[in-house]
Amino acid sequence: MRTHALRPYGRVLLQSGLSVLALVAPVSAVLFWLTIPTGTWQPIAAAQGVLVGLCALAYLGYSRTVIRVDGEGISERGFLGRVTNFDTDEIGSVVLLDLYQSGALDTHPQLFVTGTDGRLLLRMRGQFYSPGAMETVVDQLAAPVVRVPEPMTLQDLNRVRPELLYWFERRPTRAE
Length: 176
Known about the structure:
Elements: E1 4-6, H1 10-35, H2 42-64, E2 66-70, E3 73-77, E4 83-87, E5 91-100, E6 107-115, E7 120-125, H3 131-140, E8 145-147, H4 154-160
Parallel strand pairs: 5-8
Antiparallel strand pairs: 1-2, 2-3, 3-4, 5-6, 6-7
Helix pairs in contact: 1-2
């Protein structure tokens, strides 16, 4: 059985890098322009070195991020290097839905792999993974698939299935 290695979009890394460069380059240029004549540029260079190091770590973390899936199960190496593995007998269902972006009419597909106890095992966001990668997970795992036909807001998902959200996305809901 073939193992599929699913990696996030490379464009996210490129866009993030360009955003950091657009913010840091002008500020650094001005700070160097002001401090070089007075000879106090060393702290600015040190801060730039730290920033370059952090960017290198972020690049390394993103480029090592991978989801591996086959008929035996699924594993994920996350951005921070944490590796999680789940066998097919631990997987209860796969939920596919479209989630509205905050304050927009655009949606992104989301894939949630849940355990037999209902807890979230793995999440694939459409901002990072292609719909084809999500379909590969569906095809490889022999688990029931729940396809939500209508797009949902984060608030709707929080009300209906809060266990699918990360802790920082959950909001208390009032009883109706």
